[in-house]
Amino acid sequence: MRTIQLKYMALAVVVALLGISGCKPKNAASAVDAGAAAKAYVAPGKYDEFYNFVSGGFSGQMSVYGLPSGRLLRVIPVFSVDPEKGWGYSEETKPMLNTSHGFVPWDDLHHTELSQTNGEIDGRWIFANGNNTPRIARVDLGTFRTNEIIEIPNSAGNHSSPFITENTEYVVAGTRFSVPPDNVNGDVPINTYKKNFKGTISFVSVDKTSGNMKIAFQLLCPGVNFDLSHAGKGPSHDWFFFSCYNSEQANTLLEVNASQKDKDFILAVNWKKAEEYLAQGKAKKQTVKYAHNVYDEKTHSATSTIETEVQVLDVKDFPDIAYFIPCPKSPHGCDVDPTGEYIVGSGKLAALIPVFSYTKLQAAIAAKDFIGNFGGIPVVKYESALYGEVKKPGLGPLHTEFDGKGNAYTSFFVSSEIVKWNIKDLKVLDRAPTYYSIGHLCIPGGDSRKPNAKYVIAYNKITKDRYLPTGPELAQSAQLFDISGDKMQLILDFPTIGEPHYAQAVSADLIKTKSVKIFKIEDNANPYVSKGEGQTKVVRTGNRVDVNMTAIRSHLAPDNIEGIRMGDEVYFHVTNLEQDWDVPHGFAIKGSINSELLVMPGETTTLKWIPDRVGMFPMYCTDFCSALHQEMSGYVRVSPAGSNTPLLFSTGKNLPKADSTVTK
Amino acid sequence: MKKLIFIGTIGLFIAACGGGAGNSNKEGSESSENKEQTEKAENGNPSYDPKRGEGKFTTVDISEHLDAAKADAGNKVFDVKCSACHKLTAEKLVGPGWLGVTTRHEPVWIMNFVTNTDEMITKDPAAQAQLEICMVRMPNQSLSDEDARSLLEFMRRNDGVK
Questions:
Q1: Closest Cα of chain A to B82: distance in Å?
Q2: Does residue B28 surpass a pLDDT of 70?
Q3: Tens digit of pLDDT for each residue in A536-553?
C-alpha cells in the first residue's frame, strides 16, 4: 500500500503522515488512503458521473449532489416553503402545500425513491415522503420540480414510504404512529391504544404516462409502528414487505416499553391479492378528507383538490392478503436483494442480521406453518421463513443496499460502520468505519434489480469534528466510499442540508440529456401571461389590481405604476420573456411580507402584495441578469384610500414635464 | 424548410473544413474582401466570413417581392420575443432600432445572428461593435428556423420591401 502513495504528490504524503500518526480509528483524518483525492476529483467544467438525490430530513426538501465530487447541484423545494425560489409564496405554488389541515409550510422528508420500469431505474420521477403531516410527493426529473403532492388519510407519521413496486404501479405509505381512524371519534384516552388505535398501509397508484397519483386502497392493520418497506422483485413481484416495531402496542415511554419483546415483525403483503378483492368490490368506502395537489407545467400553476373517499380493506377479514414474519429486536430496515429471493430485516437492537427466503416463506404459508396470529393476521414461524442469520456482523443494523454481485452492505448505527457481507454464505467480507454513527446508506440502484455498484455513500447522524466548527449547529456529514474493489475505500466527506435519511443515486446519463432548459413562451397557458410587452397591462377590479408584466434583460414592463391605493390587493404576474437557458429574472418589492419571485425563462409567476402605507415602493430584479441589471427596476406609487390618482402604467414614457427639468 | 436545413448542414461542413474555396464567383469575391476585415478582427480567424456570420445558414432563399404571409408571421414573433428591446424605427431602445437592418446586413447574417446569437456576439466584429454601444448581450430567444425566416421577412417589410 505505502509504495503506491509515492505516486501522489504532496497531498497524499500529508494524508499518509496523518494516517500514520493517528493510529486510533476515530480520528477525524484517519482511514483515508492514498489516491482518495484523485478518485473524488472532478475537474472544473467537467460533469459528475452520478446524480445523488438526498432526502433533506427536517429541512423538508430534497438536495441533489454530483458524485463523486460531492458538489451540491440543487435543492429542490418539496414540503417546505423556500423564499429563494418563491415556493409556497407565489400564488401559483401556494396550493402545493395545502392539506386537510390547511396550508402547512414545513415537513420532514425522510426517503427518496426513483421510479422504475422492470425493476430498473427509468429516470422519470423521484418520490419523497412527508413524515409529519403524511404525504407523498412526486418530483419531475425533467424540471427538477415538485409536480404533485398527495396527503394520506387515516395515518400519522408516514415513514415506510415512498417505496415503489417494480413498474412503479404503486408507491406505498405506512403509518408510523398508529392512531384512531379518521372516521371515528379520536377523542379517547391515550392508554386505549390496543383497543382504538390502528395502523394503515396505503397503496397509491401511479399513472404510467402522467405520473399522477391516486390512493387505490388502504389496508387496515392492527396498531403498531410501521417503519420501513421494500417491494418484492422478480419472483416476489406481487409482494411488499413492511417492517414494524412496537408490537407491544405501548403508548408511552416507547424507548423501554416498545423494546420488551424479543421479536417484532415484518409484514408480508400480497398486493396482487388485495387488488383482486378490490376488483370484487370487497373494500369498504370510507369518508375521509385529504388534499391532492397537482402542478401543471403549461399554466405554471398548481391546484389543490380536497378528496373525500378511500377504499379500505380490513386485513383481518382477508386472511390471505398479509402475513407477519417474526423479526428480532425492533426491526428498522426491510430490504429485498436484486434477485427478489432474500429479504433482509435489520433489528435496531440486534447483534445479528436475519435473512428471510421468499421461497421458504411461500412454502410456510402454503403449509400453514403458523405460530398464531397478531390482530387477526397469521404469524409465520420464524425458522420456517428464515434463510439464515449473519452472525456478529456489528451492533445496531439499520439498512442494507446491494451491489448486484451477491453482496450486501449494511449500515450499523451503534458500532458506526458499514459491513459488507455475502448473501449466500452470510459471511462478513469487509467493514469500514463511518464518522460518525451512520443511518442510511446508498449504492446507485442499490435497491433495484440492477445496482451500479461503483460507490456506497454513508449518511451519518453525527458530525462532531469532521469539519471546521460552526457553533453548536453542524451540517450533517455524508461519506463516499469506492466499492469497485474487494475492500471499501473512503474517498470523500461532504456536508449535507437538513438531515439526510435515505438517498438514491443514478447514472447521470439517464437524466442529464432530458433536463428542461426553458419553458417555451408560446406554450405558456397561465391566465395572466404577457406574451410580449404589447400585452402588459394593469387592471383594477374593485380593490384587486392585476399587473400583467414582463421581464427581459434588463427592464420590467411596466416599470412606472401609479394609482394604487391603500386597501388594494396587488397581484404582480411576472412573465419572463427570455428564451435562453439559465436566464431567470427575480422580482421583489419593498416592504412585501411575501418572498421574492424567481421566474424561469418563459414562465409566469405571481406575487401578491398588500401595500401597508402611502408612499413610493421600488421594485427590482433580484437575479443578476446583465451588465444593466442594476437598472432593472421601477416604482409603484401608493396613494391614500379613495384618492383620485389615475391608474397609469408605462415603461420609458413617463418622462418629466419639460419645464420641470429646466433650471435657470 | 428541408431544403434550407440541408443547405445549412453543408455550410457547417464547409466551415468545419476551414474555408469556402471553390464556391461561386460571388462568394469568392467576398472572401477576398473579407481578408482585410478579418485581419482586423480580434479573433483573427481567417476563415470567418463577416458577411455570412457564424451559424447554420449559408444562403437564404429571398425573392424580390415580399411574402406578406411570412411577414405577418414574423410580426407575431416580433411582438412576443423582440419588441421588448427593439423599436421598428432607427431609435435604440435596449438594442438597436430595426429600421434599415436589412440594408446593413446580408439576409444570411441576420438569419445566423438571430439563431446563433451567443456565438455571433462573441465572434462577429459588427455584433461586437453593437455590444459596445448597447452593453447588453442579446439573449438567444430560441427561434426556430421558420421563426427566423419569418422575422427576416418582417424586417424586409419594415424596410419598405413590397
A1: 8
A2: no
A3: 999 999 999 999 999 999
Cα dist from A123 to A315, A403, A516, whole Å? 34, 19, 14
The residue range of the domain holding B137 is 2-158
Clarify whether residues A19 and A129 are in a common domain: no
Q: Do A533 and B84 touch (CB under 8 A)?
A: yes
Task: Tally the C-alpha atoms within 13 A of residue A446's C-alpha that lie toward its C-beta.
Answer: 28
How high is the pLDDT of residue A319?
Answer: 86
Q: What is the pTM of this model?
A: 0.89
Give the Cα separation of A324 and A283 in Å (integer): 21
The answer to whether residue B39 scores a pLDDT higher than 80 is no
Q: Are A345 and A327 in contact (CB under 8 A)?
A: yes
Q: For A283, list phi and psi in degrees, rounded to 5.
A: -80, 150
The single-letter code of the amino acid at A646 is P
pLDDT-derived band at A659 (thresholds 50, 70, 90) equals low
Q: What is the CATH number of the domain that holds A542?
A: 2.60.40.420
Q: Give A438-489 as a DSSP string.
A: EEEEE-TTTTSSS--TTEEEEEES--TTSS--BTB---EEEEEEE-SSSS-E
Domain interval for residue A383: 50-387+505-514
Number of domains in chain A: 3
pLDDT in tens, A632-652: 999 999 999 999 999 999 999
Task: Give backbone dihedrals phi and psi of A297, rounded to 5 degrees, phi first.
Answer: -70, -15
Which of A29-38, A592-601, B90-99, B122-131 comes out lowest in average pLDDT? A29-38
Q: Which of the listed residues A486, A514, A542 is the one where a domain comes to its end?
A: A514
* Chain A residues bordering chain B (beta-carbon distance below 8 Å): 518, 520-522, 531-535, 550, 552-555, 557, 577-580, 583, 626-628, 652
pLDDT tens across A458-473, in order?
999 999 999 999 999 9
Question: For A618, phi and psi rounded to 5 degrees?
Answer: -70, 145
Which residues 109-128 in chain B show a CB within 8 A of chain A?
118
pLDDT attached to residue A30: 56
Judge whether B10 is closer than 8 Å to chain A, CB to CB.
Answer: no
Please state, in angstroms and rounded to a whole number, the distance separating the CA atoms of residues A503 and A67. 13
B18 touches chain A (CB under 8 A): no
d(CA A146, CA A78): 6
By Cβ distance, the residue of B83, B85, B140 closest to A579 is B140
Instruction: Report the SS3 class of residue A165.
Output: coil
Last residue of a domain, one of A488, A514, A540: A514
- For residue A111, pLDDT beyond 90: yes
Q: How many degrees, rounded to 5, is the angle at CA A142 between CA A110 and CA A399?
A: 25
Shared domain for A54 and A120, answered yes or no, is yes
Strands A62-67 vs A71-76: parallel, antiparallel or unpaired: antiparallel
Average pLDDT of every residue of chain A: 94
Residue found by looking up cell 471546521 in the block: A468
In a domain, A10, yes or no: yes
The secondary structure element, H or E, covering residue A342 is strand A342-347
User: For the segment A227-238, what is each residue's pLDDT rounded down to a tens digit?
Assistant: 999 999 999 999
Share of chain A above pLDDT 70, in %: 94
A161 and A284 part of one domain = yes
Contact residues on chain A for B141, CB-CB shorter than 8 A: 578-580
Q: Cβ of B79 and A532 within 8 Å? A: yes
pLDDT digits (tens, 9 = 90+) for A353-369: 999 999 999 999 999 99
Give the number of A-B residue pairs with CB atoms closer than 8 Å.
56
